[in-house]
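seq:
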Amino acid sequence: MVKICCIGAGYVGGPTMAMIALKCPKVEVAVVDISVQRINAWNSDSLPIYEPGLYEVVKQCRGINLFFSADVEKHVSEADIIFVSVNTPTKTRGLGAGKAADLTYWESAARMIADVAKSNKIVVEKSTVPVKTAEAIEKILTHNAKGINFQILSNPEFLAEGTAISDLLNPDRVLIGGRETPEGKKAVQALKDVYAQWVPTDRILCTNLWSAELSKLAANAFLAQRISSVNAMSALCEATGADVSQVSHAIGTDSRIGPKFMNASVGFGGSCFQKDILNLVYICECNGLPEVANYWKQVIKVNDYQKTRFVNRVVSSMFNTVSGKKIAILGFAFKKDTGDTRETPAIDVCKGLLGDKARLSIFDPQVPEEQIMRDLSMNKFDWDHPVHLQPTSSNPVQQEVGVVFDAYEATKDAHGICVLTEWDEFRKLDFQKIYNNMQKPAFVFDGRNIMDVEKLREIGFIVYSIGKPLDPWLKDMPAVA
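struct:
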């Protein structure tokens, strides 16, 4: 029986290994992590991450050919194929700070693999890593090999949170990069054979190592670029009276462009987009390509601009101050159907409002209070370290922030509502009831364009919806720079 071990029981490692176990019943899969608390959660009925359909897959395989364990070294030493899915945060100090990926956890994993390995191993990069990381890992492994052969593969993950299970079941493509040597090709084939048990072989793309590593960064950069492009257009739409939804639809019907990732919003978030673009910028700079680096920097700048513009619109619309006013925040996760808050636009929006002394009442159906408080008190990039290694907060926000478990409680006595995650349930709220219980004038700032604007205005709300023709009230109160 082929044995697979995945180091890292997070958003990538957990679902991916669960799907491999489901589709490859003759493969034994172990997911390991140094966090005993996280492993215990994977072995319980309350998984550490929320993903539609994930629990059903885990429950079907767990204890049969899918195991979650904190005994990292045991399972690594026994495995034939080792996936490494550890954190690769952006460096906060030293060379490349603010852009380069911190490979501390990756290097630590590689050294541990070399220490405990007693047989030949295929080591698979599953984390998003900079181009040429495989070369560095290869050197660590081969210099500590003790006669054991290691083959390094790059197998970047392209699943999207909220749809991870369907993405894993029916992927657009599976990308495997390896050395173009007989041993490298054999390793690529071994991993291809695993995926081929449910993925059509024409969707399994095999490349060299560097192409696979760069393809992941490039894919995320292109997707983020589309979001920043439509968000840049949303500002122009507001200035001219155009409707960004209509513009996006008109553009999206062009077969050369297509309709995906064309929705204007308060900004993109998630664990990959910003981190990968910053990584790409750093790689370009290191390779003497400043013009290319500056091009990709602009994608991040527009995303930051969109969040700042949203906060400015809230403050300027409410008589140029939100000091002491209760603002309801509906949604804190970076997108619906996930509890993930990494780089969520809600963090910057909330911090911007807190900077103007607002009082926030936050509701998200999947994000616990502890996580929200930690996110709002954390410095940039600290979120991507394992929880037990994240710095202790030096900036508590408890006095100005309340986390509640009901949208009606969040909005009671509020002066304004900010919709920051596109949860379906927010569309179904009784907004007449909400309006009756709010301070007047009552504002709705729709950062996801999911609200029925005309219906809200009929009730009496003053509504701002990104990229849509402005409410007459808002026209008289332009967003300050």
